[in-house]
Design goal:
single chain; 398 residues; alpha/beta; Rossmann fold; Dehydroquinate synthase-like, alpha domain; 2 domains; six-stranded parallel beta sheet; two-stranded antiparallel ribbon; globular; binds fe (ii) ion
């Protein structure tokens, strides 16, 4: 064995859903439900694009033909505890045997939380991390997740984010190892109607999740391999998917990158951008992907400036940022420093090219930036960024 080969530290990977990936994968849902003996279910979708699509009409016909009875719910915006409690009550009333969530991260999180809340005693807020004091026991209705935005990767994770906005607002997780969906059906055709602005924001969320889990202090070679593959495909496909929503190859690339980002974040953790996203999302109505996308470039720049060349862990992070520069831009400039610098430029270019808005468009001001910076946790970020640095980072994107 080479003396230079690093050791692989211990790591564990949580339960992942059964995955069906590809154009037409959604046509397998009815058979999956039939094989599992499911005859009554709850279906949760977003409120807009899917509901007017031919895919939704076709899917309903297939489920009816398979003898499924269901109640369905349309979610507008991000899910809060009240919505989840209401859905769970309805699921109990019809004695549902499964939940099907079709949509972006919000719809799938709502479905995941409602499937769990079916078995919880009392309001779901009592079980949210940092909000309630009760711990979920992990029982849940089986969840079938069909993502439609190519972004959050929540179809691969075991937490559901619920939020309430305002002065006493929060954006917190309901989490248990068992809450991963039993099946993820990732059909790139379901994203064809997803608007360009949502495609851009969710795509940047996926890229942020891949980058943050890749440079995370708790990354492992297993998650690194997935993050590298996801970044390669996201770099090739994000602009194409934003500029031509019917480009099915680009939609497939983004759906794949998003799914991998979910596995990576669930097992390797996230960094400073997601650490700031929770308090930001609780303070103001700003799409999660916009917040992550607009801040990502600044966070990489601030981080690179603070990496100590004499610190071994920082040296690994610098090499990883250089590698991300190559994967995202598709071009190797040779030296690590050149590739890392190119990453900063590439993220600034990409953010503009796909039209990610700045924070000021959502009412973010100096005071909000200070409050969010103060409440930000660094999670598994490779270098410590104090509140002053986070504030400066946020101000740079007003
Ligand atoms: Fe995210």
């Amino acid at each position: 064995m080479s003396a230079h080969l690093p050791t692989i530290d211990s790591f564990s990977i949580g339960r992942c859903p059964r995955l069906s990936f590809g154009v037409g994968a959604r046509n397998g849902l009815a058979a999956l439900l039939r094989d599992a003996g499911v005859s009554r279910a709850g279906i949760i979708t977003g409120a807009r694009s899917l509901r007017v699509s031919p895919a939704w009409r076709q899917l309903q016909a297939q489920l009816r033909d398979a003898g499924l009875e269901w109640v369905d719910f349309a979610l507008d915006g991000e899910p809060g505890p009240a919505f989840v409690d209401q859905v769970a009550a309805e699921l109990r009333r019809i004695e549902a045997q499964a939940v099907i969530a079709i949509g972006g991260g919000s719809s799938i999180d709502a479905g995941k939380a409602a499937a769990a809340a079916f078995h919880l005693h009392g309001p779901v807020a009592d079980y949210l991390e940092g909000v309630g004091t009760r711990v979920p026991d992990g029982r849940s209705l089986p969840l079938y997740a069909l993502p439609t935005t190519g972004g959050t990767g929540t179809e691969a994770t075991r937490n559901a984010v619920l939020s309430e906005i305002g002065e006493r607002g929060f954006k917190k997780s309901l989490r248990h190892e068992n809450y991963a969906p039993v099946a993820a059906i990732v059909d790139p055709e379901l994203a064809v109607g997803c608007p360009a602005s949502v495609t851009a924001a969710s795509g940047m969320d996926a890229i942020t999740q891949l980058i943050e889990s890749y440079v995370s202090t708790t990354a492992a070679p297993f998650t690194d391999a997935l993050a590298e593959s996801g970044l390669l495909w996201a770099g090739r496909c994000i602009e194409r998917a934003v500029h031509d929503g019917s480009d099915i190859e680009a939609r497939a690339g983004m759906a794949y990158a998003a799914y991998l980002s979910g596995i990576c974040l669930a097992n390797a953790g996230l960094g400073i951008v997601h650490g700031a996203a929770s308090p930001a999302g609780a303070a103001l109505t700003i799409p999660h992907g916009v917040f992550c996308g607009t801040l990502l470039g600044a966070s990489v720049r601030f981080t690179l400036e603070r990496l100590d060349p004499h610190n071994a862990a920082h040296a690994v992070a610098r090499r990883k940022y250089a590698r991300i520069g190559v994967l995202l831009s598709g071009r190797d400039r040779g030296a690590d420093d050149d590739n890392a610098a190119a990453l900063v430029g590439e993220l600034a270019r990409l953010t503009d090219a796909i039209g990610i808005p700045r924070l000021g468009c959502y009412g973010f001001g100096v005071e909000t930036a200070r409050a969010v910076a103060f409440a930000t946790s660094g999670k598994s970020h490779p270098v410590e960024l104090d509140a002053a640095a986070v504030e400066a980072m946020l101000l740079s994107r007003l």
